[in-house]
Amino acid sequence: MAKIFVARALPGDAIERLRDAGHEVTVHGGSMPPTREELLAGVADADGLLSLLTDRVDGELLDSAPQLKAVANFAVGCDNIDLAAAAERGIPVGVAAHVLTDATADLTMALLLASARNLPEGERDAREGRWKTWEPEGWLGRELRGAKLLIVGRGRIGQAVADRAEPFGMQISFAGRDDDLHAALAEADIVSIHCPLNEQTHHLIDAAALAAMKPDALLINTTRGGVVDQAALIEALHAGTIGSAALDVTDPEPPAADDPIYSAPNCLIVPHIGSATATTRAAMGNCAADNLLAALAGEPMPTPAPAPPSA
Length: 311
Ligand code: DGY
Hints:
single chain, alpha/beta, 5-stranded parallel sheet, 14% strand, binds (2R)-2,3-dihydroxypropanoic acid
């Protein structure tokens, strides 16, 4: 029997599965993440940690959990976890890989379509009395057929977005680590970011990258806010350096009520809901449970986190 600390209540039957396997599971209650103190107290005698992307798992935390044998993240991203610190201490880390590809790609398309066809503005105008008649020149959006979609990142989610965009008649290209990003950005009508956040991709889309884009380009971000230099994005939207942005993720999350991102023009913002379907969230829980159960049984995790850069 192992002690497992779960950092938030989860949908699906992941917690039940951990208990059914005979483990003692403590779940942090409430809708907000544990405070740092609560997290440190929660892991103090834990053998396993089921963390969320809102929980910072670093050397300090790992050192305050002398019995910890496994960390399973309820996310495919793992920028909240110091992978090198975990590797140094021999603690395996698992991620919820594979299971949220479709949900995130669907949300990307929803953002793309909503931004391209001005849905937020149209919805506001309809409700707030600005829909006076059928307007030949009103609410004109962007045609998708023939539009050039650049996908930044060569992983599964980017590919799933390409699979969805292709039937719309979009011209799709990819930019990976070894490609000339600025040259690719200069060609694109729509840019969708699908690379993980790490030291190499932090502020990958900075002022210079934004300046390389077309003045009417749409930038979509469903990965992590930190991949985009948000101050530079706000400036670019005000200056018209790019046309619009659609963000599922911001930096920080959530932005403060008076964060300038909320007053940037043509910027659609939703609250990090890429994986937010009941089916996907349940699958993410199962993935985390599978990783914990395997590691606590001394077996390899089915979906481990990528190796830290120095490993
Ligand atoms: C992830 O899993 O990394 C997403 O951002 C949240 O589902």
